């Protein structure tokens, strides 16, 4: 088992949540890195994400190292109630279908959004487990939510 995650910025909400999960499970992590970095400014980020969403732009991305495990914990923000387009392209083009995915996400109100359905469409034969959604502004206080999620999934 390993963790793959996308965060638009170093120490962003999804990365903070990933560290909490990785710390509980002592797992290796693998960052999905867009070829063209996202802006740090929130307003500029929203503008770019909206443009990608509205114009079906799917940016290229790479990862730190090849994912070889068939059980994956996948972390991402939710943008416009969906997986970011950069994550969708990465999953479709670069990831061999895992046997099991444990999804987690951050958003400011979308929860898991449509991400579970999107994952099922991309990987129809993959078992998608119960996901964890944490409000980005509350990610610093998510330790108990992470522990509860991992216990519920029998991972700890």
TrEMBL record:
<dbReference type="InterPro" id="IPR029039">
    <property type="entry name" value="Flavoprotein-like_sf"/>
</dbReference>
<protein>
    <submittedName>
        <fullName>Flavodoxin</fullName>
    </submittedName>
</protein>
<feature type="domain" description="Flavodoxin-like">
    <location>
        <begin position="12"/>
        <end position="152"/>
    </location>
</feature>
<dbReference type="Pfam" id="PF12682">
    <property type="entry name" value="Flavodoxin_4"/>
</dbReference>
<dbReference type="GO" id="GO:0016651">
    <property type="term" value="F:oxidoreductase activity, acting on NAD(P)H"/>
</dbReference>
<dbReference type="GO" id="GO:0010181">
    <property type="term" value="F:FMN binding"/>
</dbReference>
<dbReference type="InterPro" id="IPR008254">
    <property type="entry name" value="Flavodoxin/NO_synth"/>
</dbReference>
């Amino acid at each position: 088992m390993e963790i793959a995650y996308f965060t638009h910025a170093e120490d962003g909400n999804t990365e903070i949540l990933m560290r909490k999960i990785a710390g509980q499970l002592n797992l290796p992590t693998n960052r999905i890195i867009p070829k063209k970095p996202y802006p740090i400014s929130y307003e500029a980020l929203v503008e770019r994400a909206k443009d990608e969403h509205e114009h079906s732009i799917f940016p290229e991305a790479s990862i730190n190292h090849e994912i070889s495990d068939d059980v994956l914990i996948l972390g991402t923000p939710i943008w416009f109630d969906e997986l970011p387009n950069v994550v969708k392209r990465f999953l479709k083009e670069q990831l061999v279908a895992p046997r099991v995915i444990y999804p987690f996400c951050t958003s400011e109100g979308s929860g898991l959004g449509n991400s579970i359905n999107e994952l099922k469409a991309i990987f129809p034969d993959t078992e998608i487990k119960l996901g964890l959604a944490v409000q980005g502004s509350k990610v610093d206080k998510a330790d108990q939510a992470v522990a509860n999620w991992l216990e519920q999934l029998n991972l700890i």
